[in-house]
Design a protein that fits this description.
Elements lengths: L2 E2 L5 H10 L6 H10 L14 H10 E2 L4 E7 L5 E6 L5 E9 L2 E5 L3 E2 L17 E2 L2 H15 L3 E6 L9 H12 L11 E5 L3 H8 L6 E5 L5 H7 L2 H4 L2 H15 L3 E7 L7 H11 L4 E7 L13 H13 L4 E3 L21
Parallel strand pairs: 1-2, 6-9, 9-10, 10-11, 11-12, 12-13, 13-14
Antiparallel strand pairs: 3-4, 4-5, 5-6, 7-8
Helix pairs in contact: 1-2, 4-5, 6-9, 10-11
The structure holds S-adenosyl-L-homocysteine.
């Protein structure tokens, strides 16, 4: 059966080659052809024997994702709508930052986490994305634009820790020194808080980053807006976060969307500071992008600034995130296909 070669890590390719009696070092050469030379046919792999190329052609395809539409924002943000082989549509965003371009990738078709403010959850999860479908978002976006992508955030549609194994293989492929060579420190996975996977992720040997979508300083509010909190309440979540920091020595990003009148009060800011004091974390305050079908409102500017100032005064590392690509519906949390009924 034909499958995408872009779902294969170096180790998987090695095993495939050893089983066929090929030299395992050839797998690095293939990775180079795929991700450095970005060949569009196996025939271009000139250091691979003709007979083995025939074998590769039988087993694998080199198809990129089909791009349905590509939009560009005034600020350089680009959004792609891709059609998968089974017809499902997914979105990918490229953001233009001072340090380079970062890609925001989707991990699932739809999402089952049901966060009440989020547009993605309005479509139930149909399936996980394959590793190749996640890798191909980065590769296709890069090939279509000629842009070299230096950073990747796993913050598009879906809960990455609900598709853990494929996301981990995706990271290994991105990080491959002979391939795209995206540094582990330039890769961030964001989760709504699937605690068992946070423990598992802390054992992952690459120096990748973790972001937690917190969005509330206590269980009372978090239970109202994030159903996952009923399975893994804040004290259990923070045990996992503390364990992660202890094991990896890495700073965790805490994402906090500011929702008017709900989690943006002075009391909430103080409670959040209490929760985070002494922990090696960095808080990203995110202006909420309003979703037509939802009743939630973005906090007023002065309330966002007040919230930020309280955290700052309490010596919490914090930034008020700037918004990108809002004119093309590519801003944080806005990814949802208007093309699907
Ligand atoms: N499921 C993962 C990753 C995808 S969501 C997670 O929950 O972290 C990426 C981030 O966008 C999350 O922090 C999510 O809560 C946030 N988000 C969702 N909808 C949003 C909206 N309308 N405005 C701003 N941020 C939003």
């Amino acid at each position: 059966m034909m499958q995408s070669i872009y779902g294969f890590t170096l180790d998987m390719l090695k095993e495939y080659m050893i089983n066929l009696g090929e030299k395992p070092f050839r797998s690095s050469q293939i990775i180079e052809w795929l991700y450095r030379q970005q060949v569009r046919s196996f025939d271009e792999m000139t250091n691979i024997s003709k007979s083995f190329i025939e074998r590769l052609k039988q087993d694998f395809d080199l198809d990129l994702l089909e791009c349905v539409t590509k939009q560009e924002s005034y600020d350089g943000t680009r959004k792609f709508l891709f059609r998968l082989k089974d017809g499902n549509l997914i979105e990918t965003v490229l953001m233009n930052n001072e340090y380079g371009y970062s890609a925001c990738v989707t991990t699932e078709v739809g999402c089952n986490m049901g966060c009440v403010f989020c547009a993605s959850g309005m479509k139930k999860k149909l399936r996980n994305l394959e590793t190749s479908e996640i890798v191909l978002q980065v590769l296709t976006a890069s090939i279509l634009t000629g842009i070299k992508i230096s950073h990747v955030v796993v913050m598009g549609i879906g809960e990455p820790f609900d598709n853990y194994d494929n996301v981990i293989n995706f990271i290994k492929i991105l990080n491959e020194p002979k391939g795209l060579e995206i540094g582990a420190r330039h890769i961030t996975v964001s989760t709504c808080g699937l605690v068992p996977k946070i423990y598992e992720y802390s054992e992952f040997p690459l120096q990748v980053n973790l972001a937690i979508s917190l969005h509330a300083p206590n269980n009372e509010i978090r239970n109202q807006i994030m159903p996952i909190n009923k399975s893994y309440p804040i004290e259990i979540l923070f045990k996992a976060i503390t364990d992660y920091i202890d094991k990896t020595n890495r700073r965790v990003t805490i994402e906090y969307i500011l929702l008017q009148g709900l989690n943006d009060t002075v009391a909430c800011a103080n409670e959040l500071a209490n929760l985070l004091t002494g922990l090696n974390v960095y808080v990203n305050l995110i202006p909420y992008n309003e979703v037509k079908e939802k009743p939630y409102k973005r906090s007023k500017k002065e309330d966002m600034v007040k919230f930020f100032d309280i955290l700052k005064k309490r010596k919490i590392n914090v930034q008020l995130r700037r918004e990108q690509g809002s004119d093309i519906d590519a801003a944080c949390g806005q990814l949802r296909s208007k093309h699907i009924k």
